[in-house]
């Protein structure tokens, strides 16, 4: 009896211990949703709460793969592998390397996976408030510019950022790297937005008091003083953690300019453009589907101060107390998106939500014509994958070889006819 009781207890405990799977190459998971977090609190909120969703235990499977961040070495999945989560690390370099490692991992087939990029951010008080959730169509790498120390600027210049190849601020860059702007599916964003309407967003007294400081700034700042809500507006990526009215306004203008007046900057981030560049490159190769990406950010702090504070005080001295509600609402809104995709998988999301707008990078790498920048570099055609390009090159070489063989045969026949060997008469 005692042995039976001990065995039963041991089996119960073991059932709740995540297993690290040293999986053979044939054991491949095909997640329907992959949650991408940037640092530990953003990932932990999912693990603390996911079990309550009824969608499984997000920590059931623990998977390792080479190339992940030294700080975040594991990928977590539900037992069925339907939903997975990875923390990629903060900043553009960390996030890009971790995403590349994930997509190249032999553990996963990501061709039908929806990626939910879910992180906290600085928030533009003209479009949202602390604790608000933003779903983006555009992500703009705003700091990819020349920069002059503001102490050296002409007195009437609004910013020290100058687009590449230009001489003044707020001109369209004439040199592009390809990562300046990404556009995501507006139809998928709208579907995600509809799912989030079921979310109960949390708030707190401390951020309410800080929001109230923006009440005197006029109608254009009306969103700042309201409770958290879900909004549709766009993200700005920069490894620089910027704060202040002039910088925020400059990047607001950059976002509008680089998206042909369509984008509206409301959330600042350090990782999104880096992650999206990885996803574009592997979408070209057929590893992922770029139409299945949702970029979600929640506001943890305002990107510019209220009238009563300086930029420096706002950044270093003021306690906006928005971190905890931003983290909480990341999950509160995000879980409704995950649930919505899973609940409607068979009818809608398995086959995909067809985008009505252009999607991809500023180069037009995935085909189509960007509605920003200088247009497609391929005339609207999708870039060939490495395998397709190699096959085309090999085919071209074969064709050339066949051509050379034919010419050589004709030449040999001619030489035999005229008694020529090696260019000399026989």
Keywords for this entry:
426 residues, alpha/beta, Rossmann fold, 14-stranded mixed beta sheet, two-stranded antiparallel sheet, 16% strand, disordered C terminus
Give the helices and strands, then pairings.
Blueprint (H helix, E strand, L loop, with lengths): L1 H14 L3 E2 L12 E5 L2 H10 L11 E3 L11 E3 L5 E5 L4 H13 L9 E10 L9 E3 L2 E3 L5 E2 L13 E2 L18 E3 L2 H11 L8 H8 L17 E3 L1 E4 L7 H14 L6 E5 L2 H13 L8 E10 L8 H6 L6 H21 L1 H5 L10 E2 L24 H32 L2 E2 L2 E2 L1
Parallel strand pairs: 1-3, 2-5, 2-6, 6-15, 7-12, 8-13, 13-14
Antiparallel strand pairs: 3-4, 4-5, 6-14, 7-15, 8-11, 9-10, 11-16, 17-18
Helix pairs in contact: 2-9, 3-7, 4-9
């Amino acid at each position: 009896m005692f042995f039976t009781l001990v065995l039963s207890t041991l089996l119960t405990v073991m059932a709740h211990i995540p297993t690290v799977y040293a999986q053979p190459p044939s054991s491949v998971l095909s997640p329907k949703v992959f949650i991408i977090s940037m640092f530990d609190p953003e990932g932990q909120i999912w693990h603390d709460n996911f079990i309550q969703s009824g969608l499984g235990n997000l920590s059931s499977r623990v998977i390792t793969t080479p190339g992940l961040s030294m700080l975040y070495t594991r990928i977590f999945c539900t037992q069925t592998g339907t939903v997975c989560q990875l923390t990629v690390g903060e900043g553009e370099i960390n996030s890009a390397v971790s995403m590349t490692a994930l997509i190249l991992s032999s553990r996963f087939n990501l061709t039908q996976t929806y990626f939910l990029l879910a992180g906290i951010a600085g928030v533009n008080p003209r479009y949202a408030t602390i604790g608000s959730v933003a779903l983006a169509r555009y992500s703009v790498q705003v700091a990819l510019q020349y920069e002059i120390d503001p102490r050296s600027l002409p007195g009437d210049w609004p910013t020290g950022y100058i687009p590449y190849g230009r001489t003044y601020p707020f001109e369209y860059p004439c040199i592009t790297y390809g990562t300046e702007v990404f556009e995501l599916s507006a139809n998928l964003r709208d579907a995600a937005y509809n799912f989030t309407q079921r979310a109960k967003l949390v708030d707190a007294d401390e951020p309410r008091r800080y929001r109230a400081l923006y009440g005197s700034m006029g109608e254009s700042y009306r969103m700042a003083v309201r409770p958290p809500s879900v909004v549709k507006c766009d993200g700005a990526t920069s490894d620089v953690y910027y704060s202040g009215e002039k910088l925020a306004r400059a990047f607001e203008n950059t976002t509008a300019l680089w998206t042909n007046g369509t984008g509206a900057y409301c959330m600042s981030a350090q990782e999104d453009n880096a992650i999206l560049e990885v996803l574009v490159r592997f979408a070209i190769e057929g590893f992922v589907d770029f139409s299945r990406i949702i970029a979600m950010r929640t506001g943890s702090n305002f990107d510019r101060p209220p009238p009563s504070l300086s930029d420096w005080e706002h950044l270093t001295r003021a306690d906006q107390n928005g971190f905890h509600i931003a983290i909480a609402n990341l999950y509160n809104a995000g879980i409704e998106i995950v649930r919505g995709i899973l609940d409607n998988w068979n009818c809608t999301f398995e086959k995909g939500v067809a985008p009505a707008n252009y999607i991809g990078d500023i180069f037009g790498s995935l085909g189509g014509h960007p509605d920003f920048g200088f247009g497609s570099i391929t005339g609207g055609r999708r870039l060939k994958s490495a395998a397709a390009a190699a096959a085309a090159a090999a085919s071209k070489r074969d064709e050339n070889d066949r051509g050379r063989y034919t010419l050589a045969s004709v030449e040999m026949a001619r030489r035999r006819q005229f008694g020529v060997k090696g260019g000399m008469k026989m």
